[in-house]
Amino acid sequence: QVQLVESGGGLVQPGESLRLSCAASGIIFSIYTLDWYRQAPGKQRELVATITSGGSLNYVDSVKGRFTISRDNAKNTVYLQMNSLKPEDTAVYYCNAENTMFRRSYWGQGTQVTVSS
C-alpha cells in the first residue's frame, strides 16, 4: 500500500520559516518525480515546486528564491524548505509522487501552513 505522509505545517508570522516533509512508503521512491502543491481557500491547486528523479528543480515564480525543494532517497522523503514566508503562502500543502512511465501518481493528505501576524 502506497502512503505519502506530510508533516511540518503550522502557524508562523510573516518572514519566518517552515520545513515541510513528506515521507513515502510502498513505492520505489528514487524513480519518482516529486512535487509540492498548495491550495488556498477558494483557489485552484497550484504546483509550487518539482524535483525529478535526476535532481532537476523547478519552482513557481512566486516562491523562487524563498523555497527550496530537496529529496533524500535513502529516507524516502521529500522536503520543502520555506523561508521568508508571506501571508499569501497560506494554504494546504500537498506532496505528490508521479511516474509517467508507469502512469502512477500518488498524493499525501496535506498539511496546513498559515502565515499570519
Question: Gist?
Answer:
The chain contains no helices and 11 strands. It is an all-beta fold and 117 residues long. Strands 2, 4, 5, 6, 9, 10 and 11 form a 7-stranded mixed beta sheet that branches. Strands 1-3-8-7 form a 4-stranded antiparallel beta sheet, with no helix packed on it.
How would you characterize the overall build of this protein?
- It is a single chain.
- By secondary structure, the chain is mainly beta.
- Helices cover 0% and strands 53% of the residues.
- The strands form 2 sheets. Strands 2, 4, 5, 6, 9, 10 and 11 form a 7-stranded mixed β-sheet that branches. It has a 4-stranded antiparallel β-sheet with strand order 1-3-8-7, with no helix packed on it.
Give keywords.
single chain; mainly beta; 0% helix; globular
